[in-house]
Structure formats: C-alpha cells, structure tokens
Design goal:
Two copies of one chain form a homodimer.
Chain A lengths: L1 E5 L6 H11 L6 E6 L3 E4 L6 E4 L1 E2 L8 E4 L5 H4 L3 H13 L2 E5 L2 H7 L26 E4 L2 E4 L4 H14 L1 H10 L18 H17 L1
Parallel strand pairs in A: 1-2, 1-6, 2-5, 6-7, 7-9
Antiparallel strand pairs in A: 3-4, 8-9
Helix pairs in contact in A: 1-5, 5-6
C-alpha cells in the first residue's frame, strides 16, 4: 500500500508527521513524501527542512493521500499543478484525506464538493459544509481538524485499512495515551484570552507572509 | 531561547516533531536540529529524511535539550561523541529532556543518575529508577514516555518557560484536543493480544537491525 504525503513550502510539520508515524507502521505500507520537485522543502517555522525524494509526477496513483496544512496552503490551494495532481490521485485512491488546512487544498481540487468536512478551527469558514468535529469521514474522504488531529484521523484510517487489532497495536507502539496538561485544545474549551492570543498570532503571521 | 534537538540515524520522527511543533511556537524560541555532522539524517522507517543544518559542535550551549528516541538510540546511547555533547549541554541547560528511548541516551550520559525517569514502556527496565508515568519531572530534567508523549511533555515545558496562557495558546493553535478512537495507548490499558503484536514487531525489528 502506497501512502503519499505532499509537502510544500511552509507546511506544518506535525500535520504530516503525525499521520506518517501511524500509517508507516501498517503492515506492507510505504509512505512517500512528494513535492513539486524533489529536493529540500521547508516547514512554516523555517526551522525544519525535509529532503523529499520524489516529485508529484513520480507518484501518480497512491492508494492513500494525506494532504497536510500550514501557511503554505494559501498559495498551494490555488496552484493548478497541485490541484490537478490531487484530482488525478483522488480518482483512483482508496482514501483521500487531509489534516488542518490541507482541507483547503482538497476543497480547491473539488474533492470536498457536496461533502461535510473539517479543518483548523480558524479556517472552517473557508469550507462549504464545515463540521465542528475532530475527524469527519465521508466515504473515502476523511478530513481532520487542526495539526494534532491527524494522529486521531490516521488511527481511524489504520482501523479501516488493517482492522482494529493492528490500529490498537499502532496506538500502543506510539504510546498514544494523551494527557494534555490543560483542557484548551479546542475553541469550545479554551478561555477567551487564550483564543485572542492565537487569533493575534495568526493575524501577525498573515501580515508577515 | 535556543532549543536543540539532536537527530541521528534511525530516530523516531514523532518523538522529535511533537516537541518541535510545540516549542517552536514559544515567543522568541528557535529550534535547532543538530546531528553528528550536517547533512541528511534518516528516520527509523527509512521513509523520511531530514536535512540537518548544524553539527553538534555548532550548538554547544542550547537553553533546552530534547533528545528523541528510536531504534538508533541502541548505538547512540554508547557513542561518546553524543554522550560528551549531552553532558556539556546539560551542564549549562535550563532544561534537559527526552522523549521515548531518548531517555536511554540521557541515562548513558549520566544525566539521570539518582533521578526517577520514564521512557517507552518496552524499555523501562533499562532505567535505574523507572516510573510508569507519561511525563516525569525531576527539577530541570524531564523525561516523557513513548513517542506521542513528547507533545504532553512539551506543553508542560512550555508552561514552565512561558506561563500557562502561552502554553494553552499553543495547545489551541495545534488543536490538541485528543480523541483517540481506542483506549489502548498504554500497556496498562491495551488487550493482551495487542501487547503481543507490539512485542512481536519490536522483536522482529531488533532481529533485523
């Protein structure tokens, strides 16, 4: 089973690495990171660089697609090279998925037409039928909320692909028994002052890039 | 604030990227990935390659050290170049931390002498004073359990460094409101057959490498 994760300038690393860490452990699975061209791709923080070995055209028919988000989706969601590739992959995929604002790329490609979907809570208004859930499954199309939600999404996907025992074994292998020290991981739970900090940081980043 | 994350052949990606995603969002923080030598470092799955721009000797005095785990720790925990670097860093650090079997590297460097600590549940017998907790704080030394526990550890560390509002804002920004589809993320919770799958996979990997 081939799993493709496209990376692009200013992707958010955990969006991609969460699902990678889960899905790469599926028996017989191979995760291929892909980019417009092979070479170094830099994350949104500029502090992390991934060496991507395959171009989009080298991975035309993966079984599973996972599109991560990040500030870079702002341009990638309009880039016809990416959108054409996503459309072509989706035509034959077993699963087409996204994490965070990766959903905006699926949306740009028309994959979400008529479907409920989710994305990072700051960007749900960009979707036609947004749903405030962590993972939204619509047949073979699965979207996850912001950043860390990709881990939960990938575990559900692991169950659909390989069954519950394997999915639970992957959860145990990555010791995913979360104990967040606070309960502010959702806009419905965080105090207003915390929401304002995040909105302010996002606005500042938007102004900068 | 400089945060150093050493990478080495066969590290586990989420061990490093979980804390990176949290700590890189601290105001004024800079995360530097470091390696024995600058260049490409490959993760345990061989499916991911990170371009590391700095050698260990270029980052001698970071404020925070985060040592990830992975199959590669089996050799790195005995590598005097790494252990000397870790000792030198720890002498001046504000925080010295590990995720998963990164604790075995801290152990090898003597950082855990006399301290309680945790690591991936399969490896707790390698520590002198193992504790079955997700995050163990002993003054400036903080160890996290397997793989995904680095996210919880980094959020606690974010609180100690920047206060609760900022730590909560980071939790909200990465939408860390976990909803694992199963409750098998700990050896105390997973069914026996699931434990056996993970133990079998680990033994097979050991035999291979």
């Amino acid at each position: 089973m081939q799993i493709a994760i496209p990376l692009f300038d200013r992707f958010t690393a955990l969006d991609a690495i969460g699902p990678y860490e889960v899905l790469s452990r599926l028996p017989g699975a191979r995760v291929d990171f892909v980019a417009f061209e092979p070479g170094v791709v830099r994350a949104d923080t500029r502090m992390l660089a991934i060496e991507v070995e395959k171009g989009l055209d080298e991975v035309p028919r993966p079984d599973v697609l996972v599109v991560p988000g990040g500030a870079g989706t702002r341009s990638v969601m309009h880039d016809e090279r990416m959108l054409d590739w996503v459309r072509g992959v989706h035509e034959h995929s077993e699963y087409t998925t996204s994490v965070c604002t990766g959903a905006l790329v699926l949306h740009g490609a028309g994959v979400l037409d008529g479907l409920e979907a989710t994305t990072h809570w700051l960007y749900t208004d960009r979707l036609d039928r947004p749903v405030a859930r962590r993972v939204v499954e619509q047949g073979k199309v699965i979207t996850a909320a912001g950043v860390s939600a990709g881990i939960d999404m990938a575990l559900r996907l692991a169950e659909r692909i390989a069954g519950q025992d394997i999915a639970q074994a992957i959860q145990l292998a990555i010791e995913y028994d979360p104990e967040p020290p606070f309960d502010s991981g959702s806009p419905r739970k965080a105090p207003d002052r915390v929401l304002e900090i995040v909105r302010g940081a996002e606005a500042a980043q938007h102004a900068q890039t």
